[in-house]
Amino acid sequence: MAKNQDNLLNTSALAHSLYSDILRFVKSKVNQTEDAEDLTQEVFCKIAESNLEEISHVKAWIYTVARNTVIDYYRSKKHITSPLPENELPDFPVEADEASFDHLNRCIRPFMEQLPTDLRNIMVWSELEGKPQKTIAEQLGMNYVTLRSKIQRGRKKLGKMISQCCQAGVPQKITEISTPSSCQC
């Protein structure tokens, strides 16, 4: 029993002497002050649970515990996702209605017509008609990976054409939005 009390007193004295150094170390690794304080507390809880008599370089070991605690902190944060509360979810329709799809199709088709023929056909089948990319690749006798690359290239070209045509800029008021008369949107 006396040995446990001595160990507790030694741990307490050690905590008082190293607390600010360990806190400063953890703060240098973690952005939030509150998190750094919590992690430092966790480090000293681990120290209190350990048998310091078996450790030859106590100060170095404590810094190792602190470093590992910070690493564990970041590992655990990677897997945490916070869902949006129900009242903050955007109110989007589950399925796009046919009128919206037709309008979007009419807006994009003139830009697609400007693409080279082989790329245009692939883009129309994939993006407007909704054919699966694997099916298109099989029909054209093309490698699936090659087809995916062509679709990505087509999307980039379409995006560039649309942004060049429709440079509305950021208006001061919503009523000031206008597209150039040459724009096909």
TrEMBL record:
Domain spans labelled RNA polymerase sigma factor 70 region 4 type: 108-158
Organism superkingdom: Bacteria
Keyword vocabulary terms for this entry: Sigma factor, Transcription, Transcription regulation
Classification via InterPro entries: RNA_pol_sigma-70-like, RNA_pol_sigma-70_dom, RNA_pol_sigma70_r2, RNA_pol_sigma70_r4_t2, RNA_pol_sigma_r2, RNA_pol_sigma_r3/r4-like, WH-like_DNA-bd_sf
Residue span, RNA polymerase sigma-70 region domain: 16-78
Coiled-coil region(s): none
Matching NCBIfam families: sigma70-ECF
Family according to the record: Belongs to the sigma-70 factor family. ECF subfamily.
The protein, known as: RNA polymerase sigma factor SigZ
